[in-house]
Amino acid sequence: MRRANALLGPRVLLAAAMVIFGTIGLMRRAIPLGSATLAAVRGLTGMLFLLLVLRARGERLRPCALRAEAGLLIASGACLGINWILLFEAYNHTSVAVATMCYYMAPTIVLLLSPLLGERLGMRKALCALAALAGMAAVSGIRPGTGTGTAGDMAGVALGLGAAVFYAGVMLLGRRIRRTTALERTICQLGVSAAIVLPYALLREELVALNAGQVLAVAAVGVVHTGLAYALYFSALARVRAQTAALYGYIDPVVALALSALALGERLDGWQAAGACCILLATAVGEWRPEKARSGRNLCAK
Length: 302
What we know:
Elements: H1 2-8, H2 10-22, H3 24-28, H4 35-56, H5 63-68, H6 70-93, H7 96-103, H8 106-113, H9 123-140, H10 154-174, H11 182-204, H12 212-237, H13 242-248, H14 251-262, H15 270-287
């Protein structure tokens, strides 16, 4: 990973991670497993891959740091696992494009909840939050004068928004986790998510036989879309500005929208496309601020 870091540069690695994240909706359509089962496999496989990355770097987990923030790590890991279940279910009920834009409401939810954490919600951020909510109404299929959704499955919209709520929980809890590194934190969150989701999957979902292609798809979600994507992301993170990381984060939904249209034929109509643009623009403006520190984070990594 360090050799790839040196050869390709942090921006290429960051862009590659965002492209990988953007393709997960397409992969979900190829896997017949239940959402909880797939989330558990993703968490376990991703955790094992990142442990190998940590070992390859000559590093190891620090038990003292992990014990000091165990409660926050467990809570954020639980939110991550539930978030994945809801997101995968959203892909089953509506288009990848609509589910992705619902999921991308997570930063707006964080904005709306920030006053509860003692943070000031200024006029610019408040207007951005309102614009994102208006865009969400358009994406969901609600039309002026009708009051009901006329496009997209409302169950899928609700599941996508539920996923956004729980990912907002991951983000808010993450602001309080300071003693562990980003890689340590993610390894623990993935492990906790798998441990919490697996019993539910075993009790509520039936295992199905997979053909060779579906087995490869499951492996890709765990190794490529989780382990490799996060490894690339963290390799680049320390060498780019926060504003750069936020900007590159928009590659994820753009790729998801493009693949939804090109590969699956799931096109947004005019109102939905306008709503998607509104959400992306409102999120970008709401996140924008001058940055001097060379650190960053992706607000909506899948």
